[in-house]
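cron nightly-structures :: item 1 of 1
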Amino acid sequence: MGSPVGLRHTVTSGVFSGYRKRKDGQIFLQTDAAINPGNSGGPLIDENGFVYGVNTMILRGTEGIGFAIPIEKVYEEFSSSLF
């Protein structure tokens, strides 16, 4: 969900592809949902509204490969700011 390039009230859909763990231990959720300038930072949710992560980035030079930070990590890093 977001406002890519100023388009308001935009929602995209996609498929959750799996977990990706980097060598440094960081975990990302892979999705093919469109993540464009303006809607990165939006929630990665299921059909019931459960938030799985926060959409953060895409791989340059590819189409349909995006990543989200797992919601558990968001709570770990920002819990003092959220409550």
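cron nightly-structures :: done
The chain has a mean pLDDT of 84.
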